[in-house]
Design goal:
Blueprint (H helix, E strand, L loop, with lengths): L1 H29 L19 H17 L5 H5 L1 H9 L2 H33 L11 H25 L5 H17 L1 H7 L31 H25 L4
C-alpha cells in the first residue's frame, strides 16, 4: 500500500509540473497581479475550454485517488484489530478523518510550491511579489476548504460503498458540477442550483470576488455551506462506524 501511494505521489508531482507549465504563462499574462503559486485558483473561467478543464481535473483526480480507501482499507485491514482491542470507534474515525485532511492539505501545499518553483525556471519576474490580498484572503481558504470537503465526502461514502465506487461517484460529481457551469450561465438560470455544485467553489473566477453579476457564487454563503457539510459528514461518519460489524 505504501509503495502504491508513493507511485501516486510521484505521478501527482509530474502532473503538477505539467499543469504549471501549461497554466502559468497564460494565466499570468491575463492576471499579472495574481500570486503565481495560486494560479490554479483562477485557471478555469466560466467559459473555459475542455483542454483546461481536463488538465485541472487530472490533478484533482490524483488527489482523490491518493486518499481512496483511507477509512475503508483500515476497517478491512489492521484497523479491525485496533477496534477489537480498544473498541474506541470515535477515536478511530476522528483519527482517520484527520489523517485524510492532513494529507490533503499537505498535497495542496506541495502543488503550490511546484507552481512557484516552475515559475522561477520560466524566468517570470518576481513571482513572489504579486499578491492581491483583496481576492486571495477568501479564495485561498475557500479552495482548500472545498477540497477538504470533497475528500471528506469521499471518505464518508466509503463507509457505505466500496472505495472504487466512491471514487467514481465523487469524480463524476466533480466533472458534472464544473462542466455544467457554462450551460447554467447560458440559460441564465440556476442561481440557487449553482450552490449544489460544490467543486465550483474552488474556482475564484466563478465567485463574487471576480463576477459582479447575480450569477456568481457568494463566498460567504459557500463558507457557510461547507461548514455545515463538514459537520454533517463528520456526524454521519461517527454514526455509521457504530453500526459497522467489524467481526
Amino acid at each position: 500500500m505504501k509503495q502504491e501511494k508513493m507511485y501516486i505521489f510521484i505521478f501527482f508531482i509530474a502532473i503538477s509540473i505539467v499543469q504549471s507549465i501549461n497554466f502559468i504563462e497564460i494565466i499570468h499574462e491575463i492576471y499579472p497581479n495574481w500570486p503565481i503559486p495560486f494560479i490554479l485558483l483562477v485557471c478555469l473561467p466560466s467559459d473555459s475550454p475542455m483542454s483546461s478543464f481536463i488538465m485541472w481535473y487530472i490533478g484533482f483526480a490524483t488527489i482523490s485517488f491518493f486518499v481512496k480507501g483511507v477509512i475503508r482499507d483500515k476497517i478491512d485491514g489492521y484497523g479491525k484489530y485496533i477496534l477489537v482491542r480498544n473498541y474506541n470507534k470515535f477515536k478511530f474515525i476522528m483519527k482517520s478523518i484527520l489523517s485524510g485532511t492532513t494529507w490533503t492539505i499537505g498535497i495542496i501545499i506541495i502543488q503550490f510550491l511546484i507552481f512557484y518553483i516552475v515559475s522561477i525556471f520560466l524566468n517570470l519576474k518576481a513571482p513572489n511579489i504579486y499578491w492581491d490580498n483583496n481576492n486571495l484572503e477568501k479564495t485561498l481558504p475557500l479552495y482548500i476548504l472545498t477540497t477538504i470537503t470533497l475528500v471528506l465526502l469521499q471518505m464518508v461514502l466509503e463507509l457505505f460503498f466500496s472505495p472504487v465506487t466512491t471514487f467514481l461517484v465523487i469524480n463524476c460529481y466533480v466533472s458534472l458540477s464544473i462542466s455544467s457551469w457554462s450551460y447554467l450561465t447560458f440559460v441564465d438560470k440556476g442561481s440557487i442550483i449553482i450552490y449544489l455544485g460544490i467543486p465550483n467553489y474552488m474556482m475564484a473566477l466563478r465567485t463574487n470576488s471576480f463576477l459582479k453579476e447575480d450569477f456568481a457564487i457568494d463566498q460567504n454563503k459557500a463558507f457557510f455551506i461547507l461548514g455545515i457539510l463538514i459537520c454533517t459528514l463528520t456526524f454521519t461518519a461517527l454514526r455509521r462506524i457504530k453500526k459497522i460489524d467489524i467481526y
